[in-house]
Amino acid sequence: xxxxxxxxxxxxxxxxxxxxxxxxxxxxxxxxxxxxxxxxxxxxxxxxxxxxxxxxxxxxxxxxx
Length: 65
Known about the structure:
The protein is an alpha+beta fold. The chain has 1 helix and 2 strands; from the N terminus they run ββα. The protein is elongated. The termini are far apart.
């Protein structure tokens, strides 16, 4: 992680969160490698699967009369 100093007044992409940022304000920049992104994606998928199987089933057996 690196702190980025010298925020540009005209960034390529303007986000609403940056409206109050003034030129020269420090920004935190995080760069992910392809390996980091792959690992993160795998963790997200594992967590989704775990949550899916932890939820109680909404399926109810019908009683045979």
